[in-house]
Write a structure and sequence with these properties.
Length: about 150
């Protein structure tokens, strides 16, 4: 049971440290909260997969948030200049969300920061431990995918 407690404590510490690194690596005004980041990432993924912008309804359904929350998050992202809202050509009442150039740059910058962080981690733990960590994470992801 002690190893379970050690693992739980280590995962909690890791999560806190990663969150702290992310917050300090970004300017305070450009930092996105997790809900905002989920929305901007979903918009990019949806557009890449379907070659069209998602609606607020689609965002709320897939991410699992209320329509009001989706509206609040999208309004914040619009205010930050990362997302734009446009009426659908088929139905003007339907609002489509897409990334602005600034939003695309933000995601790219975030991806680069994540890669830099992973490279630093890999160099600090060595090649063998990196391979072992990748193997374990893959196994955990497969297990979680089978659970859902």
């Amino acid at each position: 049971m002690e190893s379970l407690n050690d693992l739980e404590q280590s995962l909690d510490e890791l999560q806190k440290r990663l969150q702290k690194i992310k917050k300090t690596s970004m300017a305070e005004d450009s930092f996105l909260h997790s809900g905002e980041f989920s929305v901007i990432k979903f918009i990019a993924h949806y557009h890449k997969r379907f070659d069209t912008a998602p609606t607020l309804v689609k965002i709320s359904q897939v991410i699992g948030i209320s329509g009001a929350t989706a509206t609040t998050l999208s309004d914040r992202l619009i205010k930050k200049g990362l997302v734009k809202k446009e009426g659908s050509l088929e139905d003007k009442r339907t609002k489509l969300l897409s990334l602005t150039e600034k939003g695309e740059e933000y995601l790219l910058s975030n991806k680069m920061r994540n890669k830099e962080m992973i490279l630093k981690l890999m160099s600090s733990i060595g090649e063998e431990d990196t391979k072992e960590l990748a193997r374990i994470l893959k196994k955990i992801n497969q297990h979680l995918e089978n659970e859902s």
